[in-house]
Specification:
The protein contains 14 helices and eight strands. The N and C termini lie far apart (about 50 Å). It has three domains: about 90 residues, Multidrug-efflux Transporter Regulator, Chain: A, Domain 2 (Orthogonal Bundle); about 80 residues, Methyltransferase, Methionine Synthase (B12-binding Domains), Chain A, domain 1 (Orthogonal Bundle); about 120 residues, Rossmann fold, CATH 3.40.50.280. A five-stranded parallel β-sheet has the order 5-4-6-7-8. A three-stranded antiparallel β-sheet has the order 1-3-2. The longest helix is centred in the middle third of the chain and has 23 residues. It is elongated and about 70 Å long. About 55% of the residues lie in helices and about 15% in strands. The chain is of the alpha/beta class.
């Protein structure tokens, strides 16, 4: 724990909790909910305990508790009420916060404890869609806002990927039962965020389809090699940062010229595709707003 991050700026608290910095300042001044320290230049800094308290307060706030009521609670009462809410309602918010704290502290044990408590009462697919997808969405925003470092993101995503690998392997040991198309999953050059694509791979093999997972940074020429091995290839890719939304049309034209042959399909998902203003110009290319949306075609 000695290498863990122990102090946070108000901007860190805003990004990690979703509560605006202006609101946090009001809660401090009016209700004395947090007690920041000050640097020599009079800049607020917050301890890990303050972050944990704010995350708990956020959960109470989003479950109907007024700030004036929360302010009257003793510090020891807040986590007790939080646990009661979790017991009565969804664990989603608490679990996401627990995973974020595990990430901030590079705490593998907390990650596994949180994960094991979730999968004890639900399927891996339910846990991924209900908790890990919202978590990954938040991590993307935190990364863009520079509230977390690449080391934080790599730490938590590596643990998540380990779990996906384990569940995927259970189905990969079985012979395919669906032979009408072969899925080829890949990330384009410049793209390294593969958690979403890994889970799509899990969804595909769990439905009995043959899947070829190529992973990160694939050139179009490398994709072309697959055409000599299989017919009716369904390419699937995930655009988180690359290509950017204004470059997708150019990328698809290059894909059409380099890779496409009759019978092929291309499905694309990810943050960049959600920002597209027009539909792809090619009929064999489909965009999906979410993994759940894509997964629905596997059950059709």
């Amino acid at each position: 724990m000695n290498s863990s991050k122990k102090y946070f700026s108000i901007r860190d608290l805003e990004n990690l909790s979703g509560i605006k910095a202006h609101t946090i300042r009001i809660w401090e001044k009016r209700y004395h909910l947090l007690s920041p320290e000050r640097t020599e230049t009079n800049i607020r800094t917050y301890s890990l305990n303050s972050l944990q308290k704010l995350l708990n307060i956020t959960l109470l706030y989003h479950n109907g508790y007024k700030i004036s009521k929360i302010a009257k609670l003793q510090d020891s009462q807040i986590p007790v009420i939080v646990n009661e809410i979790i017991a009565k309602n969804s664990e989603k918010h608490h679990a996401v916060n627990a995973f974020k704290l595990a990430m901030v502290n590079f705490d593998t044990a907390q990650f596994y404890n949180t994960y094991n408590s979730l999968v004890a009462e639900r399927s891996f697919k339910e846990m991924f869609n209900d908790v890990l997808v919202p978590l990954m969405n938040e991590l993307g925003l935190l990364w863009q806002a520079k509230a977390i470092s690449p080391a934080h993101e790599h730490f938590i995503t590596s643990l998540i990927k380990q779990k996906i690998y384990i569940h995927t392997e259970r189905f990969q040991k079985l012979p395919p039962t669906q032979e009408d198309e072969v899925f080829v999953l890949y990330l384009p050059e410049g793209e390294i965020h593969e958690v979403g694509l890994l889970f799509i791979n899990y969804e595909i093999v769990s439905k009995g389809y043959r899947s070829i997972y190529l992973g990160q940074a694939n050139s179009l020429d490398s994709l072309k090699e697959l055409l000599g091995y299989y017919k009716n290839i369904h390419f699937v890719s995930y655009f988180t940062v690359s290509p950017q939304n204004d470059e997708i049309e150019k990328y698809l034209k290059a894909f059409d010229a380099t890779v496409y042959k009759p019978g092929c399909k291309l499905s694309i998902l990810g943050y960049q595709t959600q920002r597209m203003h027009t539909k792809p110009a090619f009929d064999y290319v489909k965009t999906y707003e979410s993994i759940a949306h894509f997964s629905s075609i596997l059950e059709a």
